[in-house]
Automatic annotation (TrEMBL):
GO BP terms in the entry: epidermal growth factor receptor signaling pathway; positive regulation of cell population proliferation; positive regulation of mitotic nuclear division
Classification lineage: Eukaryota, Metazoa, Chordata, Craniata, Vertebrata
Gene3D superfamilies: Laminin
Source organism: Hippocampus comes (Tiger tail seahorse)
Record protein name field: Neuregulin 4
PROSITE patterns from the UniProt entry: EGF_1 (PS00022), EGF_3 (PS50026)
Keywords in alphabetical order: Disulfide bond, EGF-like domain, Membrane, Transmembrane, Transmembrane helix
Length: 108
């Protein structure tokens, strides 16, 4: 809320906002509102913000980015495991066929 749209609270209403928030009375609706400092949010500045200065959209974007990076790492790991397994299996088959070649009995 913008402070220009209200009149500063007086008397008992001045203590309405918590944690250093500034109280304003909206003349058009006769309601009380708070302008919170950087570290708090909520209708009465009652909620501490964990990520300072970050909006909810920025927080959601950060979470999405972290999930995508984690998925990308997981996919790369799965591809590396797959090709390593495939190479080991091919090496084992080559070794097995080489042994079988030398065990062939000649015909008489």
């Amino acid at each position: 809320m913008m402070a220009e749209h209200g009149v500063p609270c007086d008397g008992q209403d001045a203590a309405y906002c918590m944690n250093g928030g500034t109280c304003y009375k909206l003349a058009s609706m006769e309601t009380i509102s708070c302008v919170c400092n950087d570290y708090y949010k909520g209708s009465r500045c009652e909620q501490f913000q964990l990520l300072l200065g970050a909006s909810e959209k920025e927080q959601a974007g950060l979470i999405v980015a972290l999930v995508l990076v984690a998925l990308l790492i997981l996919v790369v790991f799965a591809v590396v495991v797959y090709f390593t397994y495939k190479m080991l299996k091919a090496k084992q088959q080559r070794k097995q066929s080489h042994i079988e070649y030398w065990k062939v009995k000649p015909r008489v």
